[in-house]
Amino acid sequence: MKDTKQVKEEGNPWVSFSDIMTGLMVIFMFIAITYIVEIQRKQAERDEILKEFMQTREELYMELDSTFYDKFEEWGVIFDRDLSIKFINPEVLFRSGKTRIRTRFRKILDEFLPAYFNILLKPQYRDKIVEVRIEGHTDTVPAYEYDRDPYVGNVLLSQMRATAVLRYFREMEYFKNLSPEDRRTVQFWLTANGLSYGRTIDANKNLTYYSGLPADNRLSRRVEFKLVPSSESLVEKVFTMINK
């Protein structure tokens, strides 16, 4: 049988194991704390990015609204919080089934487009925009002149109308006088899209897809300028942060 002195000299193996477990717990605790701090840091960064995005969108809305407030009613325009500008007066835009821009709409575009792009090209906005979409929308009247399928016929009709607006802008002195850098930026932004009668609106100016109400053909014949903020790059940035 070992005496007390021998036991002390050999040491207690359970004490050593206990020390090891304590050390591991301390290490795990520090890892957990570091992880929590990192998660909180990433969350704060994501919140800041989203806050900046929402703030930019609100600032754009306020500036566009203050710039064109007195004109929107005169021009027959709906301006929504999603930054879409809808020209809804068909008597001003195009003749039924035609793609040539009427004189009145040309005059409106002469006033609208320079002021619109002067805002978008400001330093605080230009790198936060990925697309300026010119959308053509038609009513539900078949456009057999363009295709035997009434929907496809109206796709072609609405596409030609959107393209006509884009072409008119490119022919304006304002566009030709842009700096090379601004011209490249605007060309990167601009697209022309024909959406046929897939997104008709009702008498309350709401999309019939959601309201379930009959389409108002007069209001549905419209041209929209839809501003697309850099939400895709925002999502990509946030996703990258999450996976770092």
Explained architecture:
A hairpin with a 4-residue loop joins strand 1 (77-79) and strand 2 (84-87). This protein has helices at 4-10, 13-75, 90-93, 103-120, 123-126, 150-171, 173-176, 180-189, 208-211, 217-220, 231-242, and strands at 77-79, 84-87, 129-137, 190-194, 222-229. By secondary structure, it is α+β, with helices and mostly antiparallel strands. Helices cover 62% and strands 12% of the residues. It has a single domain (46-236), classed as OmpA-like domain (60s Ribosomal Protein L30, Chain: A), CATH 3.30.1330. The radius of gyration is 30 Å and the shape is elongated. The model has no long low-confidence stretch (mean pLDDT 85). The two termini are 60 Å apart. A five-stranded mixed sheet has the order 1-2-5-3-4.
Helix content: 55-70%
Q: Report low-confidence residues grouped into runs of 5 or more.
A: none
Largest sheet: 5 strands, mixed
Tally the helices: what do you get? 11
> Numbering strands along the chain, what is their spatial order in the largest sheet?
1-2-5-3-4
* Ends distance: 60 Å
CATH class: Alpha Beta
Mean pLDDT across all amino acids: 85
Q: What's the overall geometry?
A: elongated
Give the CATH topology: 60s Ribosomal Protein L30, Chain: A
Q: In total, how many domains does the architecture comprise? A: 1
Quaternary structure annotation: single chain
- According to DSSP, the number of beta strands is 5
What CATH architecture would you give?
A: 2-Layer Sandwich
Beta-strand content: 5-15%
- What is the H/E order? HHEEHHHEHHHEHHEH
What would you give as the CATH superfamily? OmpA-like domain
By helix and strand content, what is the structural category? alpha+beta
**What's the alpha carbon Rg, rounded to whole Å?**
30 Å
